[in-house]
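[Meeting: bench + compute handoff]

Bench side (C.D.) handed over the final construct sequence. Compute side (W.E.) agreed to return the predicted structure before the next meeting so the bench team could plan truncations. Sequence as handed over:
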Amino acid sequence: MSADNREHVFLRQLEEVRTTWQEKLAELEKSLVLTYSAEERFALPKRIEECRQQIERIAKEIESLKKESQQKTLDILDYLCQKVHDIPIVDRPIEVFGASQKTEPIVAAHWQELMRFWIFKLGQKNNQSEYLGLVNADDLMLMLLSSNRSSREARALSSFAMQCLGTEPDLRDETIHSVIDKAIDNLDDLDGLNNKLNTLMDEAFYSVMQSRFGQLLHGRLLQSYIQTRDARRNNIGCVFLNTAATNSEILNSENATQILIPFLENSIIFCSVEERVDAALRLVEAFYRPQGQKNSARIDFLPDLLLRKVVKVLLTAAEQETQCNYAVSTTAIWALLWLISAKTCYSYAIYTFADKELDLLRQVVINDKHDAFARSWSALILSVCTPEKTIFAQADWIYEWAVVADGSKPQRKLPKISHLNRPKDIEVMKNLIFSDLPIKAKRYVAIALGRLGCFLPEMIDPLLQVFQDDMCASDDRDEALVYLVFTGHSQAISALMYGVNRLKDDTDKYGLPERCFLALIGMGDVDALKQQIELGIKNQIDALAYALAGVTNPQGRKVLESMKNHREKEIRNAVINALRKLPQWDS
């Protein structure tokens, strides 16, 4: 038995003894009133006084014990207050395949163990003393979640509180709600990424979802998803899919009807918003998982009638414009995005979208009441929903640039792009790229415009973000790079030259400097090529000279001619070798 429980037992025993003495006192006082015996009338007052003295003595002892216990409680409270205001935060590495080292803030292990002990101790039902009710596990949890925290502390503590919740402590409902809501408030872009448990927050959410609080967490996530929008809604949706996955089967041609029909039935307008959003999120999961497990996979196996039903239900949901249903429309567009693999550059020729359906998607793009991601995803869908090849799919551009760098053909003989004749789509996308859309959503719009062959200065920042983001897939970064080259803009040239000449990064598994170099070759800007060749970097000089010799701009040859007597021998030799290529290329 703990010392605290021994104190409580002793206190209870004293209370029982006092009650016994009080009962005896009452009996003696009654006897004194009723007796006629002179002897008893002499003896009873002495016994009554003795009872009163015992009762007073026990009362003082009880009061003393209570004060000691209260002081102990205050000492403990002071101790805990100090601990929750002096929190050691450390960085925990996050392993994301293909990306440089990422970290997340967490509370130090020794602090975690200490807090787990007190949360368990204060939450014990058999701990009868409960420190006289002055502090309990709920109080401690709420102290951890106070609002006066830095974002770093708030993230670490909400993650820890969710981990504790996964152990199913005895807490009040309002405390549980606060823990979950705080954790949702502190989600970031790494949580739920690629449908994997990357962070401790991911693991904590998954643990709580498997606990007796799982249904409550499901409901709170769903409500938060519905009530927010844009980037925050997207983060919550990713975590929801990461933790609430229930379907163990991967969608395929044999089980498609069995899996999809129940979700489609719950997506109809007569169901509640919660039911429709939940069903649409399940469709996102169903369409994402085959592609998440295998990058080249596509949803090209649905029976024609089922495919048409899926598209019709999703576009009907996307069309709803009442305020409470924007979560429905956003999730429907998200599901459609994964159905047709619109995040990849390849056209979706399996289903032919009717003009009315294309107009509906254009309406989503231009309607600023819609979620920012629904608008940008609709732009991506429009960019691949016809049979024409997108710009990125028209050639293996990076390979072609490498051929030029090897001197095998002149830069002017690179493949020409074939612009897609999509004026309606380009017009609505241009309006979106010019808007104040969040930059993360603008990435998708810039990619969509590039696929159609429209290149604007406003695309450069979002394209650079994709190209430089090591969290993006290599194919996505390559696609952004190609469209940067075709902008031909000075900002793109400056960024590429900076990338070529930056210090070597051992964590770079993508090869960003090498790709920047090939992109400069592909761009064929004479001034940029001349400036780079003047740097005299040995493994670049020959390729730059070949590129200068083969550009369409006649200024390229003039620049080479002016460098035949360059002070650096390597540059002179490279220039001469490149000029020797000209008769062969000109023939």
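W.E. noted at the follow-up: Residues 112 and 160 are 8 Å apart (CA to CA). C.D. will use this when planning the next construct.
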